[in-house]
Please model this.
Amino acid sequence: MSRIPGWPVTLREGPVGLRPMRMRDAGALRETRRRNMEWLRPWEPTLPEPPLEPAHLSPYVAMIRAVRAEARRGMAMPWAITYEDVFAGQLTVGAITWGSARNAQIGYWIDERFAGKGATPTAVALAVDHCFFTTGLHRVEANVRPENGPSRRVAEKLGFREEGIRRRQLHIDGAWRDHICYALTIEDVPHGLVHRWRQRLANDDHRIPGGQDPGTSASSAAP
Model:
């Protein structure tokens, strides 16, 4: 039994879905990350992520087993992002803190071929609403490298509040890197983040905003 209210759960908005990571995702995970080596490498935590290069399935199976165990302990919600039911990346709500804090960090990565389709902001909006209105969290953070313009745009499109720099927060691509902290609390989105995102799209004449969104490098992003 999960210790997280409302977990496991599958969520959907249009062609974009979130479903819990499963052991049989290991093959799709390996293939997607192999194809996206150069796309993901600049934002990739040096450890403990599985290798981007082609490899046998063991590291991917071990990673999925680890994040599923974190979910059972009430520490994470690891989702696969799907686009028209095709595996498209990952989104993890991790570092969940209960008690009087009730906060978490959100991290993600997306297959380059699905970038620019609105998949990442839609997936983030679905996850944040679930965190706030079902799981009972109060605050969600996304920590993004300053150089990662596409991922910063995802947070900004959704109205995350920029709260400053976290110096040398994570070891990324071979060095300790600064990250910008973006955050939302439930008071910021009383009608939900999906509702806000739909309004943004309506204001843009129903066109998905452009721009590519490889991923955040938050510690909760468990590729």
Notes: Residues 148 and 161 are 16 Å apart (CA to CA).
